[in-house]
Amino acid sequence: MPVPATATGPLPVYLLTGFLGSGKTTLLSRLVRSSRFADTAVVINEFGEIGLDHMLVGSADDTDVVLLDSGCLCCAATSSLQDTLESLYYRRQRGEIPAFTRVVVETSGLADPCPVINTLAADPLIARHYRFGGVVATADALHGMAALDAYREASTQIAIADRIALTKADLADEAAIGALRAALRGYNASAPIRAVSPDTVDEDAPALFDGLRAEHLDVAALRAAPAAGPLAHVLRYGIVSYAYTQSRPVGWEDYARWTRHMQRQVGDRLLRAKGILHWTDGTLRAVHGVRHVFSVPEPVAGAEGAARAGAMVLIVQDMSAEDVGEAIRPLGL
Asked: Does 35 fall in a domain?
């Protein structure tokens, strides 16, 4: 029987990223076998990324879908991401595949995730049926420090994440784990860090993905930080993360002026903007942007969200503190 359109709006699409060897593949292979992940469609960029090559080899196009025993769907993206998501949606509507409620797109370990985020957040074809849900990044407790020091892609993946999955923590000592947590917090001041393992897989699925869009920022942690002004984390490769707490509500004219300024004056130097802000119309909204692209601020409901609200994070590259201050000023925080 065909599946009716969801009453809750577009389906969320999450990006799972992480550097080579960070445990992303192992984590995903566990998740797709968990009943807590059963309502998920996973889009795999390359054959064998999650150990399903024996099932996907021979697939000729992006309509081939594997239904696992857990109920999770796995799809090999052998054409564009837009076409893959469109195919999944209409097969779902026609009842040809189970009615998944979320999609996880896995990137390759060396990928810069920003172009994929742009596609998910702003492509009009995708926006008809889906919305960008957020980014989960994996970090390896054994070798994560070395990867962050040596590779720009690893640093970028962590810096733009909304949640961080700490992998291989059972194989590392407490000192190494503590050092990595501190390094991750330096690259990303707001993303919750969760240690994942085979023993916690049923809890990992909802903890990493459920409700992600409404929790882009740990505002309480930002407010507790010992700084009178914006918090700045200077990373390698010219990447800098600035966090700003809100002092007054934002108006729609302020927001429009700010996005125009960011698009014209910052552009590709903006790796990511993410925030939860109070609006002058009394609403609480999540703000998201990557490079030149900004999505429409989405309402965030609930008193719990309101208690955390009031901050913006800008992750930029090759910009001075003065440039970043000029970039945030039109928003009037």
From this structure: yes
